[in-house]
Protein 1
Amino acid sequence: MKTNIDRWQELLNNITAKVEAQADKYTDKFPDIVEADGNCLLANASNWTTGFWPGMLLIAYKKTGNPKILDRLRNFEAIQNTMFSNLKELHHDVGFMWFLSSAEDYNYTGFEVARDNAMNAALILMSRFNPKGNFIRAWNNDEGSNVDKSGWAIIDCMLNIELLYWASKITGDPRFKHVANAHADSTLENFIRSDGTVKHVVCYNPETGDAVGNLEGQGYSTESSWTRGMGWAAYGFAKAYGYTGNAKYLEASQKVIDAFLRLLPDGEIPPCDFFQPDEPCYYDSSAGAIVACAMLENARRCPEKKEYYILEAQKLLNTLTDKCADLSPDTHGILRLATQAYHKARKNVTLVYGDYYYYEAVDKLVKILKEEEV
């Protein structure tokens, strides 16, 4: 009879086998979106999602030691690194792009080239910091547009700042973590509502630093709560606590998780936005995968709530596995029923970041259940 650990270990093995099977399918472009008909859309090096497939390859390499997987990882890192000659195309998501690939490659293998490239990305991310408002600017202005984005910040960046915490840890230079902490503090003040729901885009006056409004971003409205944004907040603040030990970050993570669980009916796939209308119904499995990671990070950091977060993470991962996961080695992508944004882009598809965080969450869960180092 299978134990709880055996069941999750089998799932982890199946995900790893699928990643290995897919490794030969992608060479010069990054898997990004799998449409409902199974067609995989590929991304160029400039896309913000390019760190997630290398991140999945690294997890698979840790599990298998397969040198072919490491070769594939390094190939994609080299493609990513071509973007350093095109800085105008880079943005706050250099955290996602280089932490999960190059920084984590260095953490595991000691590969110095990966370290240097991750540090280059950290310097770019730190250069986007506005000291007047204590926020990291999200995007550059679009060519030919009169929309000024110099004061725009987004909740997603709570996970990007892990690259800055890492840079301080690796170099011993505290400037990186000071910027990360300042951004986290500003995010806590201006993005997290009293009920634990989360704003997506906050607009600051870039000259005075005052928060002057917010935008709907990828959610339903400015006053709704985009579920993936709640995941970015919950996991980002949990990570910030892990690097700093600052209790207010852990409290923020748990406040957002509490709101997520309060709003999510048992056994349901998360919607794109908790306050979207009943119809049309758009799901976002990727939000569930990120929140599962956040809960398991809290299980590591908060011993008195460890069992609670493990249980809730398992419930969520069970739902995602039973209703969304495609583990066939012959198909592209894993986690179906994800949505890019409520009002635009693609609905109920497979997103590579949903796949990444699903893989990471199952890996975390197995390690926690086995009491191994995460």
Protein 2
Amino acid sequence: MRNPSIEALRFLFMVQICIWHNSSGFGTMQAGFLGVEFFFILSGIFLYRTAVRPGAPGIIGYSVGKLSKFYPAYVAVCVLSYIVFAKNGIVAFAHAPAETSLKFIGQLLLIQGTGVGFPGVNNALWFFSVLVWGGALVYSLVRYYPALSIRVLFPTLCLLFFAYIFNHGEGPGFERWTSGGFPPVSIDRGVAEIAYGVLVGYLIFNYGTQLKNRRRLLDAAALLSVVLYIPIIFAAPAAQPYVLILFPVILASAMTEGSLIQRCLGSPFWLPLGRLSFDMYLIHLIVIHLVSKGGGYVGLSQTWLNIAYLILLVPGAWLFRQAVSLAVSRLKTTAGSQHRA
């Protein structure tokens, strides 16, 4: 059963990321990319719950299960990206077919952002590559070596990576795309934060009663975390590493029965919006491009372009989800008919 407060947070943090990618948060949001940290940590929390339950799937079963949830939509966005971003896709293919084909294949294989292969034309899709490959690595360790991972490996990994981030937090911080070497910061970032989420999940799922008994203290800490987070994304990017302290508190509150966040965000209204969060991420760069081009033809100001983008983002994600579901359903029907024949 889905937790409405978690779905609300997923939606709100996804809106933050989507706004950030549109002219760096409409020119006012300095660290909107930190929503990615929220999603990596959240992924680790639920990864832990899956990995330690009786009869948990193996690494292949887990990865295939995760892929099946978004891969058809991911493929559709890869194809659309090469059509919509024609300058980088179709035109590039005409001039450099081999390299462009390799970029496309690399995106289909989810290796963008891992340090392997060329970047694709839709740079935002690196998140899914790291989520799958980084998640697979972390899951395998939790699934087969839970005590060693939670007591030794993950604390050490998190300490090393977070020490690096806290010492290089000013400026790009987490968003270090030009750092050389392998693995790149993007995969380090994903693996370390998913592993960190596992540690957070271990505490939440094993000490939930203690959290509930100290709900007032947790509520105060969660409220303070939200208050501190807002200036970080708008005006204090040098403090961005501190979200690694704030996010676990917010998530622990959202997963504790009767907490302040559950009372504020516990409406079923958030459930369908939370389900659309990854679809929003998949299409948002395409929506930005189409709105910018379309608005440019009619002479809309940047303010109206921003408003149009926000208005179209959620219904666009819903229409995209419906179109992909319909296409997958028809493919299954066709394949079933051919098999019976």
